[in-house]
Structure formats: C-alpha cells, structure tokens
Amino acid sequence: MNSFRSSLFWGLAAGLLSALLWVLSIPPFEFAEGAYIAFVPLLLWLATRPGKWMSLAVAFGTGWLAWFAILVWLRHVTLIGTIALSALLGFIFALWVLLARWIWPRLVQRPFVFRLLGFSGLAGAWVLLEWVRTWLFWGFPWAPLALSQWDRTVVLQIAAWTGAYGVSFLLIFFNCCVSQTLWHRISTKERKMWTGWFSPDLYAALGCLGLCFYVFFHSLPARGSEEALFVADVVQPYIPAELKWDTDREVQNLETLEWHSRAFATSGHDLLLWPEAATPWPIIGYDSMQTRVEMLSNELQKPILMGNLKWDREADLWYNGACLVEPGTGLAEPFYSKRELVPFGEYVPPPFDVIVDKFVEHSGNFEPGDAPNLLTLHVRGHAIKVGPLVCYEDVFPRLARASVQAGAEVLFVTTNNAWYGEEGGAYQHAAHSVLRAVENRRPVMRCGNGGWSGSIDAMGAVHSVLLNENGSVYFRGGGSFGVIQFGRWERQQSFYTRHGDWFVWVSAGFALVAVGLSRIKA
C-alpha cells in the first residue's frame, strides 16, 4: 500500500510538472525551451513501471489539465465545449503515454541503437496522433507541439521539408534522450563527476539540434534578395462578437468599418485589408452592399481584400469566405468559400444537427467550399496570386499547402478572434500562420477584427505586427505593414509543398519498428 501511494504521489507530481512545462511552452507564453523537457518527468516516472490503470489516470489528468489551460480562452464561447474538447485531447495524449509506458521501460537498458529507434518510435507515434487530429471528429489540429517554437526560426526551418510534424518529432525525441540521460544517472551506481554524465543519447539529441542549425544557415536567403511586394493598410473595427450580428447595430457597424477605412487608407499604400465577415450584410446576395463597398474602393482608389459572406438567394445557401474589390472593375471573380468550417459554430454535424444548435448565431448552416480559388491582386504593375484562409483554416496544413500548390504567392488569413476575449487565443492562432509560412515558403498577411494583424515572411519571422500605444494587439483602429518575399522562393515550391505529409508515414514506420523492438527480449 505504501509503495502504491508513493508511486501515485510521484505520478501526480510528474504529471503536474509536465503539464506546467507543456502549457508554458505554448503561446502566449514565451518559454519555448520548456517543450524540450516537458515530458521528462512523466517518462522518468514511467521507467518505474507504474500500473496500467494508474498510468492511464495520471496521463489523462495531465492531458486534460494541460489542454484546458491551453484552450482556456475558448470558454468565452462555450465552457462545456472547452471541458469536453480538452477531455478528448487529453484522451489522445493518454494513448501516447500508454504506448510510452509499454515501450519505455523496455528501452532504458537496451543498446544505444535500440534506444534511438525506440525514441524515434515514440516521437513518430506523437506525430501520428497529431496528424490524426487533423481529421478525427471533424478535425482540430490546434497547438501541435511544434507551435512552441513559433518564434525560434532556427529550429523551424526543417518544416519546409517535413512540415511542422518534423519539429514536433524533434521535440519528443529530445525529451526521450534527456529522460534516458537522467535515468541512467539516477539508476546507475556510478557516481563519477564527469564520466557519470556521459550519454550518447544526449549527444544524439544535440546532434539533431545541430542539424537544425545547418538547415537554417543553408536556408538563409542571399543578402539583399528580399523584394517588397506591397504595403497594406489594415482595419481592425473590433466589433464585439455579441454585437456582430445585432440587427439594431448593423448600420453603425458598417459605418465604423468605413470610417476607419477612410482614416487609415489616406496614405499611398497599395491595398486595404478587412477582417472576416467584415460587413454586416453579405457582399454577394445584397446588391446594395456590393455597390457600397465598390463605391468605397473607387473613393479610396485602392483594392479591398476582405473576408465576407456570400448568400445564394435562389438556393438559400450561405458561404463564409474572402473576396477582392478593385477600383474601377468592382467585385472580382472568383469568391473564395471557406473549405474547413467550424463544427458547432458554422454548421452542426450530423447526427447532432437534430438536437444541438450552433454556438454562433446565424441563420442557417454555412456551406463548405471545395477549391483554393485564388484571388488575383493587381498592385505595382504586377498580378499577385493570393491564397485566402478564413478563420482557423491556417491551423490545417493541407489547406495552405493546397493553395500554394494552386499557385498562391502570398497567403491571406482573415479572421475574427473577438469571440475569445483578450487572452491567448489570438496569439496562439497567429503562431500557426508562422508554421504555414515556413512549410510553404510563402509570406503570410493576417487581418483580425481586433488583432492579431501583421505579416510573416517566408522564413517564419514576424515582419510586422500591429500594436496600440499600450503594446496590445487588441484594439480598434488600424495601421499598415509591408509584405516581402525572397528571390529564391518567388517561383519555387518547398519540398513540403510538393510532397506533403510524407514524414507522417515515416513516423508511423518508426512507431511500428519501436513496437517490434520492444517485443524482442533483451
């Protein structure tokens, strides 16, 4: 009984510490290094061979606690949904911990090569579960472990070959190597000051980091090769979510958008950006709305790239998407329709549609789009292909990749994070755009209703972000930022863009090899 209590105590302590490090590594926190050691406490505890049900309980509790803390901003929309979603994600994390519980104790005393293959298998299993989240239960790939490195451009560059999955793989592999090093030090009777710490596992982890440095320097564009594509003026009307569809405020909301557009578009910059569902009435389906926006574009003599709605009157179908209005020619074709709708927000998936209403108020379900539908922007004498991503579509690697495969030279994220308060939601969301920029070697420009608005270059560096006088991204107003591209990637697609999620299948192979090795008796 005492040993059981002791094991449970250390399991809970390990779980709490792992959850804390995990959460602190994810934006808006700035402790990216925490991701390299976040799961070391749990792995060390698993090496003591705790019971299966105790391991499951600790793993689920750790995962649920960490995910609830990461997604706490979602409670502004639905507290019950936040709790349920965190529980689902916690269960997925528990599956990985149970696999680690089975494999890890069988690895710690095995030869070095066996251990590396086993560590690669655990990292591969993590990647496989992250990939599963892109489609399981309508898809929610939010906050992969790679997100922790969103402002560490040196480590991120491998994503241009492996996707962000490669970064997650590296982090889990590093956790395993550090855990093995510490376990060897704890369990061995050798207590020599320096040689007792010798660990080929740790050097293998450091070697992987060294590879990241090599890739970074290899990826650096030539000095002076950057080209300024255009400068965009941005409007953040910051209309509160609860008032967005208030019929009594529709005219006022439109006038707020127009006033700020005139105030921040008086410069000689190239275009104007509006956030998701910018106008209170759809630009397609309400002729008066289209006419009013076209008149504003003519007045300002600037194209307006925006998120907006489309209403097919005959079929009574609604679409959330993005479009372009240009001076002189008006609303351009095509209209981009959002491909990945928010379940229980923009539609209610069956069979829940007969018993559950949406959390976001709007008449009728939205219909999904089925194509990237690039928008052609004419600025500075050039025609630039823009790949729109609406709301949380930049969280899905395949959508940005499909847009770039179709010819997008710039990605445009138009969103409305005002639903989620002024906490970590907007920062977490923006960090995903960094991953998409590196994966596809394309600059990303973002426009939010109340922030985060800014531009990210093809190396994943934040080129500009709009802040108010208090240094906050959350404000009503606007500003401007430039969008640049490096010459070497202007007409070249990255390895990841061309070949997709090949690394997921490599990771699955590592996981199978690790399972096979763990069945071989030492």
What do these coordinates show?
With 522 residues, this protein is an alpha/beta fold. It has 16 helices and 13 strands. Strands 1, 2, 3, 4, 5, 6 and 13 form a 7-stranded mixed beta sheet that branches. It has a 6-stranded mixed beta sheet with strand order 7-8-9-10-11-12, with helices on one face. The longest helix is centred in the N-terminal third of the chain and has 29 residues. The protein is globular, with a radius of gyration of 25 Å. The two termini are 31 Å apart.
Keywords:
single chain; 522 residues; alpha/beta; Nitrilase/N-carbamoyl-D-aminoacid amidohydrolase; 7-stranded mixed beta sheet; 16 helices; 44% helix; 15% strand; globular
Estimated helix fraction: 40-55%
> Beta fraction of the residues?
15-25%
CATH topology of the largest domain: Nitrilase/N-carbamoyl-D-aminoacid amidohydrolase
**Roughly how many Å is the radius of gyration?**
25 Å
Q: What is the CATH domain class of the largest domain?
A: Alpha Beta
Order of helices and strands: HHHHHHHHHEHHEHEEEEEEHEHEEEEHH
What kind of sheet is the major sheet? 7 strands, mixed
Please mark out the parts with pLDDT under 50 across 5 or more consecutive residues, or reply none.
Answer: none
Number of strands: 13
Give me the secondary-structure category.
Answer: alpha/beta
What is the fourth-level CATH superfamily of the largest domain?
Answer: Carbon-nitrogen hydrolase
Counting structural domains, the number is 2
The CATH architecture of the largest domain is 4-Layer Sandwich
Shape verdict: globular
Integer average pLDDT: 90
- Tell me the number of helical segments per DSSP (H or I, 4 or more residues long): 16
Beginning-to-end CA distance, first to last residue:
31 Å
